[in-house]
Write a structure and sequence with these properties.
Strand content: 15-25%
Radius of gyration: 24 Å
Shape: globular
Number of strands: 6
Helix content: 55-70%
Length: 156
């Protein structure tokens, strides 16, 4: 979804789009920040509308909350796993989120894709490992119940 949001920013001619992977120890509320700049408030609103439309259409998800859309100087869209910040140039320079989140690791789209692939593979591997003992337990339960029924039949 972060990549789709970044693509929407690019399509609406946003400038200086950056993706920051936040350190889990410092930030327990989200995994990524997507920070971008707009030339004026109308463009900022158009960028936020495009992100919302694309994520609704492609992923059937809506932002948990949206702040600042009326003024358009700093629009914040909270998608829980990531937060989108759309700034006017002056406001971005003033708040300088990249400096405030020094522990965050800047990423480009290709690096994000490879990181997400690794994380997905790790989660799937972990999930498969959890399911495997359950399957073994189910198989052994079937075998043991079969043995019990065979013993009961032989005793009759």
């Amino acid at each position: 979804m972060v990549l789709a949001a970044a693509s929407a920013c690019e399509d609406k001619k946003a400038e200086n789009t950056r993706i920051l992977e936040l350190d889990a120890a410092d930030s327990g509320f989200t995994d990524f920040f997507l920070i971008t700049s707009a030339a004026n408030d109308r463009q900022a609103v158009a960028i936020s509308d495009e992100i919302e439309l694309r994520l609704k259409r492609d992923f059937h998800t809506y932002p948990n909350s949206v702040e600042g859309r009326r003024m358009g100087e700093w629009i914040l869209m909270d998608y829980v796993d990531f937060v989108v910040h759309i700034f006017l140039h002056e406001k971005r320079a003033f708040y300088d989120l990249e400096r405030l989140w020094k522990s965050a690791r800047p990423m480009d789209a290709e690096e994000l894709k490879s990181t997400l692939k690794k994380k997905t593979a790790a989660v799937r591997k972990k999930s498969a490992a959890k399911k495997q003992p359950a399957k073994k337990a189910a198989k052994s339960a079937k075998k043991s119940s079969g043995r019990v029924s065979a013993k009961k039949k032989s005793s009759k």
